[in-house]
């Protein structure tokens, strides 16, 4: 009996050990399969991550971004600079890539990259010291121009029409979007009596475009980027003079139209502030010409009667908005005008300006140089 019982127990133990071994094999198989799946998923995710990191940041964005690579910069610091300026997506992947490709000897200097450039294009530029991607178009917008004049220049230089440009700068939804995007644009530009909301805010400069058919939005925002960069430097000075940003831009546009040299601008800005302080009208002819909507060799007495919130012969204080774009010099003169006792000035036919403290002196200059 005991021998048969021992045989039964041995058999049961053998079966139990067999089931346990099968269970262990199943668990091991599941664990190995799970690890393989995790490694496969990790490999796919890693591959896609690296692949994405090596692609252009924004393939459709041809706007130039100026970057300085200081002398003696390491590849690590160059990678960080490129990532900070959103020219590459990931500095670590960039470093691994250039190490794998055995790339080196990057040149210091000031570069212009675009977010559409490939990693290899960026590397080639850094190696060759080629500081800029060649623009398809280069357009210079001078100081003292209205939006309509700016539209005409772009229509002449780029594959757009004046109508397309003017339609975009009068698009109410787009203007509201820009107000959200740029701190220099305030609700003052929404005044319905303004001819163009962005008048004065499209900065005078030379602009490069890197695509064959640049959208109008890119053109406008390139100019606003420049305005933002320049005007932002003077925010504290503007506030100290008791002006709003819109008032400062408006005054700068008038100073721009009335003077050529920095010395003239500072003197005339000071005269305008003297007039404002005593409640005297600014009485400046460029505002009359803007109100008339055209150009004239000479402003007539009858022109001074035009009914417009821009006509500074008819209103006290500043007009409701800028009359043109302006140079940084005109803005700097607006926030740092020359103090004087002058209240009057006039231009002669040779471009000289004569300043006066009294109306009698002013009229005497007028008789001598104008009449």
Describe this structure in words.
With 371 residues, the chain is mainly α. Among the domains are: 46 residues; 65 residues, 2-Layer Sandwich (Dna Ligase, domain 1); 138 residues, no CATH class. The chain is 51% helix and 8% strand. The strands form three sheets. A two-stranded antiparallel sheet has the order 1-2. Strand 5 and strand 6 form a beta hairpin. It is elongated and about 135 Å long. The chain starts with a helix and ends with a helix. The model has no long low-confidence stretch (mean pLDDT 87). It catalyses: a peptidoglycan chain = a peptidoglycan chain with N-acetyl-1,6-anhydromuramyl-[peptide] at the reducing end + a peptidoglycan chain with N-acetylglucosamine at the non-reducing end. InterPro entries: MLTG-like.
């Amino acid at each position: 009996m005991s021998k048969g019982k021992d045989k039964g127990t041995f058999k049961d133990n053998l079966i139990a050990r067999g089931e346990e071994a099968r269970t262990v094999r199943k668990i091991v198989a599941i664990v190995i399969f799970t690890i393989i799946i995790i490694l496969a998923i990790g490999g796919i995710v890693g591959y896609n991550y690296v692949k994405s990191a090596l692609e252009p940041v924004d393939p459709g964005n041809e706007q130039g971004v100026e970057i300085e690579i200081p002398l003696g910069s390491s590849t690590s610091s160059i990678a960080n600079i490129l990532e900070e300026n959103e020219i590459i997506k990931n500095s670590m992947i960039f470093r691994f890539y250039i190490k794998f490709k055995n790339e080196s000897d990057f040149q210091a200097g000031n570069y212009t990259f675009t977010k559409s450039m490939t990693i290899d294009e960026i590397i080639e530029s850094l190696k060759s010291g080629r500081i800029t991607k060649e623009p398809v178009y280069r357009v210079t917008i001078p100081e003292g121009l209205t939006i309509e004049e700016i539209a005409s220049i772009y229509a002449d230089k780029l594959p757009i029409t004046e109508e397309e440009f003017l339609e975009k700068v009068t698009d109410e939804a787009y203007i509201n979007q820009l107000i959200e995007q740029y701190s220099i644009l305030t609700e003052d530009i929404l005044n319905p009596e303004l001819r163009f909301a962005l008048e004065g805010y499209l900065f005078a400069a030379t602009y490069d475009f890197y695509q064959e058919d640049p959208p109008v939005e890119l053109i406008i925002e390139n100019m606003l980027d420049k305005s933002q960069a320049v005007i932002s430097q003077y925010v504290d000075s503007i506030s100290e003079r008791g002006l709003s940003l819109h008032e400062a831009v408006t005054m700068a546009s008038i100073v721009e139209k009335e003077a050529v040299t920095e010395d003239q601008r500072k003197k005339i800005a000071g005269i305008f502030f003297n007039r404002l302080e005593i409640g005297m009208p600014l009485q400046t002819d460029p505002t009359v010409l803007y109100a008339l909507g055209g150009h004239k060799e000479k402003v007539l007495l009858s022109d001074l009667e035009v009914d417009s919130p821009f006509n500074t012969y008819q209103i006290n204080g500043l007009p409701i908005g800028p009359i043109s774009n302006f140079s940084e010099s005109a803005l700097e003169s607006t926030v740092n005008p020359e103090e004087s006792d002058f209240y009057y000035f006039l231009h002669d036919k040779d471009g000289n300006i004569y300043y006066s403290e009294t109306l009698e002196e002013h009229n005497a200059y007028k008789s001598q140089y104008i009449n």
